[in-house]
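User: tokens in, sequence out, please.
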């Protein structure tokens, strides 16, 4: 009898092969967890079922499993919210990002030099995902934390990142909902206005948020690139608008910001 052949690992090349390993039950559970956000910290089971497109009994079993495993907790009114165990996943992911680790020193020096709030963020769909936040306690106009996701079109970080995309990528990322959520008097409300602003940002290499995200908040941001030259993140310095008119914002804070972004870029192997 010929020797029995050892089973070989299936090929993982191509999307068709990868779809063959797709575990739908796990995917549904992850989609359920992804429903929660800073704006929606708790949800009823009926809303969770409707949002994920699964029958109510299935949503109940998914939620019950996530509660048992420590990723959700049920409130007295029956609603669900993420449990502390979810945070361990997020912080583990952040610790694994070379970008966050390498940027730590330059960001802390920037915060110490300016005395202002410093943020590092990347694009997540049409939002800015905040990866690092070094907060000045005097800045009370925006409740932003690590993990917050804010409209990219209304933030200085977001506009810097969007300016690195071509028209096709912009169209793919942005929709009508991309221009909602900002409360500032100068918020950009249309794709046409955004494209004009992005053209200026590409030319000058930095962006300003002038009471667009929220009343009383200004910031200036600049890009961070990797070894391939791709813009992978952006850093901003955020200040109270009352204390920093635009000329002071740019005159005092833009130079150290550009220096910090250049340093992070070099640490990532960029030029």
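Assistant: Sequence out:
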């Amino acid at each position: 009898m010929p020797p029995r052949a050892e089973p070989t690992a299936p090929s993982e090349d191509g999307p068709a092969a990868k779809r063959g390993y797709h575990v739908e039950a796990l995917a549904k559970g992850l989609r359920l967890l992804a429903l929660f956000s800073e704006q929606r910290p708790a949800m009823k089971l009926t809303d969770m079922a409707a949002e994920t497109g699964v029958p109510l009994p299935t949503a109940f079993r998914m939620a019950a499993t996530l509660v048992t495993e420590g990723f959700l907790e049920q409130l007295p009114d029956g609603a669900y919210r993420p449990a502390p165990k979810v945070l361990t996943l997020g912080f583990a992911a952040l610790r694994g990002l070379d970008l966050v680790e390498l940027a730590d020193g330059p960001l802390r020096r920037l915060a110490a030099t300016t005395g202002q709030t410093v943020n590092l963020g990347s694009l997540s769909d049409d939002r800015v995902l905040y990866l690092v936040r070094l907060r000045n306690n005097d800045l009370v106009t925006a409740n932003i934390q690590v993990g917050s996701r804010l409209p990219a079109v209304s933030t200085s970080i977001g506009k810097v990142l969007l300016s690195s995309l071509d028209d096709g990528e912009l169209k793919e990322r942005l929709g009508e909902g991309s221009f909602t959520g900002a409360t500032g008097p100068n918020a950009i409300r249309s794709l046409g206005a955004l494209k004009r602003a992005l053209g200026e940002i590409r030319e000058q290499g930095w962006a300003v948020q002038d009471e667009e995200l929220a009343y009383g908040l200004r910031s200036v941001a600049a890009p961070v690139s990797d070894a391939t030259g791709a813009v992978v993140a952006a850093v901003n310095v955020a200040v109270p608008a009352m204390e920093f008119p635009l000329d002071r914002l740019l005159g005092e804070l833009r130079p150290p910001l550009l220096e910090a972004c250049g340093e992070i870029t070099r640490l990532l192997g960029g030029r």
